[in-house]
Amino acid sequence: MRALAAAVVLLPTFALAQSEGEVVDDRPVMDRCFWGRGASVSFRPELAGSYRYGFTGSASPSPSSSGSSGSSGVPSLGGGGGKGPEALLVAAVVVAAALPIIVYIADSPADEVTMARYNCPLFELDAWGGAEGPTGTPTWAAVASTRFRLTSGLAGLVAQVDASPSSVSGFSVEAMLRPPPRQHLEGGLAAGFRRSAFDTAVRDGFEVALPHEYVLVRDGPRSLGVELRPHVFFHQRGVDLGVEAAVRVPVTDFLTFRAGARAFTFDWHTVIGFNAGLALHL
Asked: Which H or E run includes 17?
């Protein structure tokens, strides 16, 4: 009887001690370019009570120590075309183009999961809408945009369509060159054909862009980050430029909410806008 009583008393204590050290390995894994999450349970006494939480809210073990690893040709665009907005926009484009080079050099290499995703085919479809208008005027027009992107390793293809009944519309088709990602930076160099149009004015030419994303938090296919896209557009009437920025917040493993703004010139008249939408990535 004494042995039985001791077992009754000690077994719950032993089970409780074991459960405190048990952690469910729910970390994302990639197998043959398909995402999944582990379901194994491991017992690591040194990690008992120590967890970090990803976007899913599920517990996963955290490390015991933190290692550092000219004529406008635009009848009614308006906005004045003054030097102030254009000078600020030029400075913003220069900073947005130079910063990722510095971060890429200083940042640590990407983890194995990120590299696996980089080497696999990735399809992404972004759709967003908002309002845009020239600086210096209270006029705003609705605009809707769609962007298709297909990437795998060093190469990629991106196409974008911007549609508006009374603002600047256009489309672009560009090839991408993508260096291997870093732990907090992904992106590449895009170049190709672009057409921009406002009213009866149409500009065809060659665009060079530097789309990239600063990744703040990673959880497999999910990432919380800030996306930037500085670009320069060479066409038959001169040169235009611009920069796009968006905050990307994961909703599910394959769906991301994005909200941002952009500023660009059309025949050197500055247009600004704000937008929000969703991104599907497979």
From this structure: helix 2-21
Gap between the Cα atoms of 134 and 140, Å rounded: 8
Taking CA atoms, 281 is separated from 117, 149, 151, 170, in Å, by 12, 9, 11, 23
Q: DSSP code of 74?
A: -
Q: Could you tell me the pTM of the whole model?
A: 0.75
With beta carbons less than 8 A apart as the criterion, state whether 56 and 63 touch: no
* Beta carbons of 235 and 244 less than 8 angstroms apart: no
Q: What tens digit of pLDDT does each residue of 6-43 get? A: 554 455 554 544 444 445 555 566 566 766 655 433 33
On whether the CB atoms of residues 203 and 74 are closer than 8 A, the answer is no
- Strands of 164-237 (E only): list them: 169-177, 185-187, 189-198, 201-209, 212-219, 222-235
Q: Count CA within 13 A, CB hemisphere, residue 111.
A: 12
- Tokens 């991408």 — which residue? 176
Q: Quick count: other Cβ atoms within 10 Å of Cβ 29?
A: 14
Clarify whether residues 149 and 257 are in a common domain: yes
Specify if 13 maps to a domain: no
Query: Which phi and psi angles does 104 have, rounded to 5°?
Result: -60, -40
Range of the domain at 126: 83-281
Give the H/E segment covering residue 103.
helix 83-106
CA 247 to the chain's CA centroid: 7
